[in-house]
Please model this.
Amino acid sequence: MDRGDFDLEQYEIDFADMQHYEENALVDLERVEKLTHWEPSDYERYYLPRLRLAGIKDKTSIVLQNSADLHLHTQWSDGDDLERVLKQALRIGLDAIAVTDHDEIQGAFVARRLAHERRLPMAIVPGVEISSLEGHIGALFVMKTIPKDLSASETVRLIHEAGGIAVAHHPYSPRWLDKVLGVQLGCGDLIKTVPFDAIECTNAVPGSGVKYNIAAMEAMRKQHVSVAVTGGSDAHFAGFVGKGKTYYAGNEGILSLRNSLHYGFTHGAEAYWKTREKIHYYFRLVRAVARNSLQRFGSVN
Model:
């Protein structure tokens, strides 16, 4: 792209055109918050992508490439403080995050409201990580919680009834970890038969743990499971937000993310882990597994 495609006059035109989306952000959020099924606010669908395109004269030939972390936790379940999570997500430049606390959605609603109140350059996907009897399942773009302790197929059915996207989280989790925690973390081979909309093939973990992500990719390839692939940090500590990412294209903000998931056009990737981050990760993991195995919390953090 030629530098001449950017100029101050174009910025002024674009920001003037976007002003009403910014001014009405909270009013429009209140409208969509009352709906039983998820809809994007105008701020999420129009303002955020136009903010990235501001100053470009010819926008018709540009398709934005976007990134999201679609699996993380806050203090509403067993994760870090929401303020720190948002700060880290903004620091690394994510276009969207999905707050997916264990069997709890209120943290996601609070995060979405904060994003509108503060006019953050990032969208929030309301979600939940549901503890089904056969593994953890992510529900994205939902406006209510889904009952836990149901079969995987029944859980996915209810997610679809709620208008959501069903994601098999870390489907091939370590068996020894399931035994220690007394729960089944991943749905395993059920990804071949249960109608998931997406499979999390990048659950951010340093070192040898990557083999479980590879197992998910191989299972999809061998069984011809042609659904979306997602990446998420599964961060319970704010510093790890963004270690797993989902990439998607489109100029309609968070709606582009939902459509990309629905049609299977997303890709997952994992970030680089520094040595000190690896040490921190496994220190927290060992401590959390020991604590949660005693408390039967059903999580590794």
